[in-house]
Amino acid sequence: MDMPSLTPRPVGLLYGGDYNPEQWPERVWEEDVRLMREAGVNLVTVGVFAWAWLEPAPGRYQFGWLDRVLELLRRNEIAVDLATATASPPPWFPHRYPKSLPVDTDGRRLWYGSRQSFCASSPEYRDVALHLVDRLASRYHDHPALAMWHIHNEYGCHNLHCYCDVSAAAFRVWLRNRYGDLGGLNDAWGTAFWSQWYTDWAQVLPPRATTTIGNPAQALDFRRFSSDALLALCTAEREALRQITPGIPATTNLMTGNFFGLDYWRWARVLDFVATDNYLVGTSTAPHVDVAYAADIARSLGRGRPWLLMEHSTSAVNWQPRNLAKPPGMLRRNSLSHVARGSDGALFFQWRASRSGAEKWHSAMLPHAGTDSRVWREVVELGAALKRLAPVASSTVDGQVAVVLDYPSGWAAEGRAQPSVDMGTFDEVRRWYGALWRAGVTADFAPPGAELSRYPVVFVPALYLVSDNDANALASYVDGGGTLLVGPYSGVVDECDRVRPGGYPGAFRDLLGVRIEEFYPMPAGGSVKLSGGSVGHAWRELGRATGAEVLESYVDGPVAGSPAVTRNGRAWYVGTRLDDDGLDQLVAQVLAAAGVAALVADRPPGLEAVRRRHPDGTAYLFLVNHADAPATVAATGTDLLTGADSAGEVTVPPGGVVVLRSSGEEE
Ligand code: GAL
């Protein structure tokens, strides 16, 4: 299905956040709305955790309070992203249907008293949730404040896997659909091993706690099933909404930067536009790159169309061991980096800081301190900035290169009993993305089987598992003139996690012109020197080139002399995890070989540069300076934020942002 673009009713960029009026006496609401107007808020997400207020007892709905909230917002010209409120069933629900509570791998049922306390396969949950959705949609279908639907909230954040008997039955149905019969299942799971041969479907279970390592193919399929089980709920809500409000776009907030538990490529297909939440981790050494990473994944999931930053934080979060406040200016830079990368707005969790509950120490647009506060002043400034950036809305970003990201491959690679725990996928994809960020190149992400011919270079940092079709797609891409760089431990198993025999890297052996016969993972903290002077970590390989040119080989340790970096025409391979410097150099070499240059030449290291463009050629060059020193680059245009013209050169102050509009011809 083709996704329509994001067409919310407010004109320009969206600004606001989660608004939870049910946490406050009604007399506070007037003040909320007055301050929202002061800050330039034009969209709020209402009702995300309001199920208990909407349906206080089974089948008894109360909408009066929500009628009043929506009317107040309408009168103040603030549009609403109305939540379906299904993310946190109220206590009466599990109390009445205890079997709907999720069960962990040890068979422990998890109690209610938090949120997302339900099993994705529970028929009772599905029925009651869909009923609520239907009631909400029927009541508010023509409400003038309704701009979009917010389905559920962060699916799978807390209840990604459930191992209960109901889930077991649903898993069996999913497996039957995938494999047809038990013969197919036994073959796919390799159950000849350790006498795991199944003779009756009733014997097949989720991967519950076992004596020792369970079957990895079973674990992988359970992860696929779990993603699909939640997706089925999202799709059901989406369909229910579409029946009643076909013209109102619906989305759910994904967590593209730090949650890899759902196969978001499949999810994005059912959403009218992609929305994501992006929270920074205090221990990160490059939070600005983390922001860009999550944003570029979100844009790519929506196939380049405008998307929406549904939540981020004005300052500290509450769920890390040490919750660091954002220093002055970071709120603005983070928001505008998302906008630079295609978000048609910047929303926060949440509008007003809570007084009670698990998130009372989470920052908000309106902090506990009230309006006489740094955060509030920055919130008001950001609102004004976003207004000035209104012309940017609905323009798009063109990625210069693609990075392959595959969720099931990562799940399999990060399962148990692998050669090394250091060969994770998702952190490595992030690390390669970091190299591209530092190279100043705008990256898109793509699933492995995608049509990639418009990209001069494709990076495959870690693709342990690949199907024949997807491997062939990458080979055709190179045949068609594309340049490819593949990272270590890729192509080694098929989609059932079965090893591809005959030498590694399996599916990519011929394409890359190398044959690896044995892996030599390194001890913790180990490193290996390469002939070109770079340093590898975690992994080494014993093998030889079968057609490729050897650019670098290992110079010490047990695999000295084996190829480490090779090039087979346009297909490059690196067989170790290069450290950041080495990776930067290799990425630069591959980009240069394919003729890809940084978007803005001679850019100081901390300067982020991304361009959005309208179909008529009008372009917006976002320059975000994350460094402590001013950054000067060659660029021409009018700064939308200040109105200043620059011809030939622009200087971005430390921590500042410039957005240059040009007709596109000056570039
Ligand atoms: C998100 C969630 C919000 C809030 C926020 C806190 O995961 O959608 O409801 O919990 O995190 O950072």
CATH class of the largest domain: Alpha Beta
What name goes with the CATH superfamily of the largest domain?
Glycosidases
Structural class, from helix and strand content? alpha/beta
CATH topology of the largest domain, anyone?
A: TIM Barrel
Oligomer category: single chain
Q: State the helix count.
A: 17
Over all CA atoms, what is the radius of gyration?
26 Å
Provide an overview of this structure.
With 667 residues, this protein is α/β, with parallel strands linked by helices. It has 4 domains: 14-156 and 221-394, Glycosidases (TIM Barrel, Alpha-Beta Barrel); 165-203, no CATH class; 401-593, Class I glutamine amidotransferase (GATase) domain (Rossmann fold), CATH 3.40.50.880; 607-662, Sandwich (Immunoglobulin-like), CATH 2.60.40. The chain contains 17 helices and 29 strands. Helix 10 (287-301) runs parallel beside helix 11 (330-340), helix 11 runs parallel beside helix 12 and helix 14 packs across helix 17 (580-593). The longest helix has 29 residues, at 216-244. Bound molecules: beta-D-galactopyranose.
Task: Detail the topology: elements first, then pairings.
Elements (H helix, E strand, L loop, with lengths): L13 E6 L6 H14 L3 E4 L4 H4 L9 H12 L3 E5 L8 H5 L26 H18 L5 E5 L14 H15 L2 H8 L26 H29 L5 E2 L1 E2 L9 H5 L6 E3 L9 H15 L5 E5 L18 H11 L2 E6 L25 H15 L7 E2 L3 E4 L2 H7 L12 H14 L3 E4 L10 E4 L7 H12 L3 E4 L22 H4 L1 E6 L7 E3 L5 E3 L3 E5 L3 E5 L9 E6 L2 E4 L2 E2 L1 H14 L13 E7 L5 E7 L5 E3 L3 E3 L5 E2 L3 E3 L4 E6 L5
Parallel strand pairs: 1-2, 1-9, 2-3, 3-4, 4-5, 6-7, 7-8, 8-9, 11-12, 11-13, 13-14, 14-21
Antiparallel strand pairs: 10-23, 15-18, 16-17, 17-22, 19-20, 20-21, 23-24, 24-29, 25-28, 26-27, 26-29
The protein binds beta-D-galactopyranose (GAL).
